[in-house]
Design brief:
The complex is a heterodimer of chains A (129) and B (368). With 129 residues, chain A is α+β, with helices and mostly antiparallel strands. Chain A is built from four helices and ten strands. Chain A has one domain: OB fold (Dihydrolipoamide Acetyltransferase, E2P) (Beta Barrel). In chain A, strands 5-8-9-3-2-1-10 form a seven-stranded antiparallel β-sheet. Chain A is globular. Chain B has 368 residues and is an alpha+beta fold. Chain B has two domains: 234 residues, Probable tRNA modification gtpase trme, domain 1 (Gyrase A, domain 2, 2-Layer Sandwich); 87 residues, Beta Barrel (Elongation Factor Tu (Ef-tu), domain 3), CATH 2.40.30.110. Chain B contains nine helices and 21 strands. Classes of the chains: A alpha+beta (129), B alpha+beta (368). The interface between A and B is medium-sized, with 12 and 15 residues.
């Protein structure tokens, strides 16, 4: 069973979101990194770019497959984890910590209410496991 | 129901992630495909390849049959135990399968073919056999196969044998095989590293696997096997070649024995293709930009489009590499279309990696 921290929110496409005030930190779930296997390339959104919830926000690629990632909330990209460029394996090693991908300053913090909570996400991946 | 090799239980015990491969339930990795790749390049890893198909060919017509069936020439096998890599072709010069044939002794040969093509291969072998009388084909589904690969593979494999057998094993030449006790030991592989491919009775496989584990050989899955063979520039049937591609456009001209006294299925088509000009070639690509090349991506050249046949990430080079079929005259740089972007890639000589070392000497690697 993969790890699904209860303090996080999720998309069914396997992104996790940590909400702190109006700042959302985004990564991909433990389950996603398990499915993909060893990651070898991460493409992040551009700093200061504006994303709307549901926009394509980059790509993560493992040895075997490429997977698009999507913005869970709308707003401006205020920070990216550029360490991932040289060390994409951080996502495998620590998906909820060192493997974070980028931060968005949310336009509407209320959007977070539309995300899945840990239980709902666990249920959504139960079929895969 | 997926087929299981005699090592299925061993894989589950080693926490393998199992996937369907051509109807077989096979390990894709045991935790990290990248680590398994690196172990084979630096130490010793083992692969369960019992899904491969083994056919023994016997009878006084065996040699004539194999000379007719194969585009390489078994007449080159001058020493008992020697192995030969070859394609077998259809009448149009397309590749039915690629294989290794071993000369066992006298009129006895052993052919190892792919598992994904087993049924059509056996049909083809039987169909071509109808021209010959003194011939016996026997599928050996009573044997399992383990490939032990890496710079320390040969030394660690000795754990399977008695001390008095060691010299026979260590003296074995590259691309040759010898029977030692119940084992058929071949110094062959699909990784670009030294090592053995071991055949043994099915009921010995689990003990063999455990003995190798105890000797420090790490289990490796089909995922690492694919990146290893790609770095080694070795073609994969069904991906880099198939029934619609000839060896001439698949980087396999070196496997053709075209001399006058060697008649074989598909030869005339190859002669015709050569005389009308070979239109494409299979090349190595090294991605200069960031990203990962994948199978079937479009390659854009100044002489028309080509296609990536095998693309992945090279753990040894920390770059993406690929095999691609492109117009014959192209050299230098090309572009690859990846999700509506055009990434630069350089045509490089294959193999990319041999015996743990990068063979790529292109300008783009010189800063590393």
């Amino acid at each position: 069973m993969s790890n699904v921290p209860s303090e996080l929110k999720f998309l069914s496409s396997h992104e996790w979101v940590l909400i702190d005030g109006d700042v959302a930190t985004i990564g991909v779930s433990d389950h996603a990194q398990e499915l993909l296997g060893d990651l070898v390339f991460v493409e992040l959104p551009e700093l200061e770019s504006a994303l709307s919830a549901g926009d394509s926000a980059g790509v993560i690629e493992s040895v075997k497959a490429a997977s698009d990632t999507y913005a869970p909330v709308s707003g401006e990209v205020i920070e990216i984890n550029s360490e991932l460029e040289d060390s994409p394996e951080r996502i495998n090693d620590d998906p909820y910590g060192d493997g974070w991908m980028y931060k968005i300053k949310m336009e509407d913090p209320g959007e977070a209410d539309d995300l899945l909570d840990a239980d709902a996400y666990t249920e959504s991946i139960a079929e895969d496991e | 129901m997926a087929q299981k090799t005699p090592l299925h239980q061993s894989h589950l015990q080693a926490s393998a992630k199992m996937v369907d491969f051509a109807g077989w339930d096979m390990p894709i990795h045991y935790g990290s495909q990248l680590n398994e790749h690196k172990i084979v390049r630096s130490d010793a890893g083992m692969f369960d390849v019992s899904h491969m198909t083994v056919v023994d060919v016997a009878g006084s017509d065996a040699k004539s049959y194999l000379r007719y069936l194969l585009a390489n020439d078994v007449d080159k096998l001058s020493i008992v135990g020697k192995a030969l890599y070859s394609c077998m072709l259809n009448e149009s010069g397309g590749i039915v399968d690629d294989l290794i044939v071993y000369w066992l002794s006298g009129d006895d040969y052993r052919v190892v073919i792919n598992s994904a093509t087993r049924d059509k291969d056996l049909d083809w072998l039987n169909q071509q056999a109808s021209r010959f009388d003194a011939l016996e084909l026997t599928e050996r589904d009573d044997v399992a196969m383990i490939a032990v690969q890496g710079p320390n593979a040969r030394e660690k494999t000795l754990a399977l044998f008695d001390p008095e057998q060691h010299s026979v094993i260590l003296d074995l030449q590259r691309f040759a095989a010898v029977e030692v006790g119940d084992y058929f030991v071949a110094r062959t592989g699909y990784t670009g590293e030294d090592g053995f491919e071991l055949l043994m009775p099915n009921n010995m496989a689990a003990l063999c696997w455990q003995t190798l584990l105890d000797a420090g050989v790490e289990p490796c899955g089909l995922g690492a096997r694919d990146t290893l063979r790609l770095e080694a520039g070795m073609s994969l049937y069904g991906t880099d070649m198939d029934e619609t591609t000839s060896p001439l456009i698949s980087g396999l001209k070196w496997t053709l024995a075209m001399q006058d006294d060697h008649e074989f299925v598909g030869k005339q088509a190859l002669v015709d293709e050569q005389s009308s000009g070979v239109k494409q070639r299979l090349v190595g690509l090294l991605l200069t930009d960031k990203g990962v090349l994948r199978n079937h991506l479009r390659v854009i050249t100044d002489q028309g489009d080509g296609e990536i046949t095998s693309g992945s990430y090279s753990p040894t080079l920390s770059r993406s590499i690929a095999l691609a079929r492109i117009p014959a005259g192209v050299s230098g740089e090309v572009e690859v279309e990846v999700r509506n972007k055009y990434l630069k890639a350089e045509i490089v000589k294959i193999p990319f990696v041999r015996q743990g070392k990068s063979c790529v000497t292109s300008g783009s690697m010189s800063n590393e």
